UniProtKB/TrEMBL annotation:
Pathway(s) per entry: Cofactor biosynthesis; pyridoxine 5'-phosphate biosynthesis; pyridoxine 5'-phosphate from D-erythrose 4-phosphate: step 5/5
Name assigned to this protein: Pyridoxine 5'-phosphate synthase
Site (Transition state stabilizer): E159
Source organism of this protein record: Bacteriovorax stolpii (Bdellovibrio stolpii)
Record's subunit section: Homooctamer; tetramer of dimers.
Keyword Hydrolase listed: no
UniProt function note: Catalyzes the complicated ring closure reaction between the two acyclic compounds 1-deoxy-D-xylulose-5-phosphate (DXP) and 3-amino-2-oxopropyl phosphate (1-amino-acetone-3-phosphate or AAP) to form pyridoxine 5'-phosphate (PNP) and inorganic phosphate.
Gene: pdxJ
Molecular function (Gene Ontology), one example: pyridoxine 5'-phosphate synthase activity
Length: 251
């Protein structure tokens, strides 16, 4: 079994929105990614619409349907975004924290705050009752006290925030403690019948120790892919990254 590669194409939209043009095309990005080995397409519809727009959700959804691959919609629990998700019926929804002033998602959801937990719980219930067979993941830190609260929700997976791991790796420092933390999270979640995914800040280099550790079933990678594609092409970048995944089967 090969770990799944989710290609996040948000930053294709970032380039488009920078000039207000209709290019580069997120539809083309989705098609190229899926044609070259991506197992799913991931997009984040933010409240401030800084990159992905409402219409992108519809058009990218059509592409993933045509390829028979999942759309993974990242989103906050804003009621307007919840309604858009319900209308677009993605196979996967990943609930993430969101702050207007952040450059990118800075950490996992805060499930320890009771008011926040209730908001997330209500969103999960509404999405599950409104979208047939939808699967929901939560973007979380690999902290057992947080994961314990996650088991109280009707979710299918946890996507572990790998941002700090990726920064430590990039600095050339030892990442062993993160690997051990992720292994403990994986064991706990597996025992509770919850799948374990990973995402944020990963590159072709930094994902290798995680693949070698055989912890995660799915990885969502975006910023590095789009940056690397500027010089190497999107098709080559996705194809080469997929070959790295294929060299590290889970079993």
């Amino acid at each position: 079994m090969i770990p799944r590669l989710g290609v996040n194409i948000d930053h294709v939209a970032t380039l488009r929105q920078a000039r207000g043009e209709d290019y580069p095309s997120v539809v083309d990005a989705a098609q190229v990614s899926l044609s070259n080995g991506a197992d799913q397409i991931t997009i984040h519809l933010r409240e401030d619409r800084r990159h992905i727009q409402d219409t992108d959700v519809e058009t990218v959804r059509l592409v993933t349907k045509r390829f028979g691959k999942p759309l993974n919609l990242e989103m906050g629990v804003n009621p307007e975004i919840v309604e858009i998700a319900i209308a677009s019926t993605p196979e996967w929804i990943c609930l993430v924290p969101e702050k207007r002033q952040e450059k990118t998602t800075e950490g996992g959801l805060d499930l320890l705050d009771d008011a926040n937990f209730i908001r997330i719980e209500e969103a999960v219930k509404k999405l599950k009752s409104s979208i047939k067979d939808v699967k929901i993941s939560l973007f979380l830190e690999a902290k057992i006290e947080v994961l314990i609260r996650a088991t109280q929700l009707n979710i299918d997976a946890v996507e572990i925030h790998t941002g700090e791991y990726a920064r430590v790796f990039a600095n050339g420092d030892d990442v062993g403690r993160y690997i051990e933390q992720y292994k403990a999270a994986k064991e706990f979640l597996t025992n509770n019948k919850i799948a374990t995914h990973a995402g944020h800040g990963l590159t072709e280099e930094s994902v290798v120790p995680l693949l070698e550790s055989k912890i995660f079933e799915e990885y969502n990678i975006g910023h590095w892919i789009i940056c690397h594609a500027l010089f190497n092409g999107l098709s080559n970048t996705v194809k080469n990254l997929k070959s790295v995944f294929e060299a590290h089967p889970l079993k």
